[in-house]
Specification:
Shape: elongated
Strand order of the largest sheet: 7-8-9-10-11-12-13-14
Oligomer: single chain
Distance between the termini: 71 Å
Largest sheet: 8 strands, antiparallel, barrel
Strand content: over 45%
Order of helices and strands: HEEEEEEEEEEEEEE
């Protein structure tokens, strides 16, 4: 009898923890892109996972009502992107691969093994972008080194020090919609 009471009370209290008090939506999207050029064939696999979590709260706390109205609560959205280039996988918070304009010229920021490449419209690699520990980028082109970051609109900002004029040159690559 004692075992029955302990088992029932344990079952009753543990089933309470399984009640769902959140709306959860998970979406996964996989894109495979194959690029063929003079260097050979390159396969890029991009996996995007988006999670939306919303706490369930009710407008009124009437104990004896069956149908309660749900209160609008904020939705917390997190996304994770993993890009695999030639078998090397990088985890990216936000993917900045896109086309950009600077001074009337079109450029492409493309994912590579260590970060991003900046290419012209012919696919020629102009420089590389590498992420730093504080979520900014170091841009290297020939012997020029710049500090880079993406603004709120997704534009690429590169800041380069000009030692001849003792000035900071700021180039803003505007993202093409």
């Amino acid at each position: 009898m004692k075992n029955l009471i302990v088992t029932l009370s344990l079952l009753l209290f543990t089933s309470y923890g399984f009640a769902q008090n959140k709306n959860v939506l998970t979406e996964e999207k996989t894109t495979v892109k194959t690029i063929k050029n003079s260097d050979g064939e390159k396969k890029i696999v991009k996996k995007e996972q988006t999670n939306e979590v919303q706490n369930i709260e009710f407008e009124e706390n009437g104990a004896n009502t069956l149908n309660k109205n749900m209160k609008n609560t904020p939705v917390q959205v997190t996304s994770k992107t993993e890009v695999s280039v030639d078998g090397v996988t990088n985890s990216i918070d936000i993917d900045h691969s896109a086309y950009y304009n600077l001074n009337g010229r079109k450029y492409e920021v493309a994912v590579d093994k260590g970060g991003y490449n900046l290419n012209n419209t012919d696919g020629e690699k102009l420089g590389i972008l590498r992420k730093t520990s504080n979520n900014n980028y170091i841009y290297v082109e020939d012997e020029k080194v710049s500090f880079g970051y993406f603004d709120r609109e997704g534009n690429l900002i590169l800041e380069t020090y000009d030692s001849k004029n003792d000035a900071l040159i700021i180039n803003k690559y505007i993202m093409v919609e």
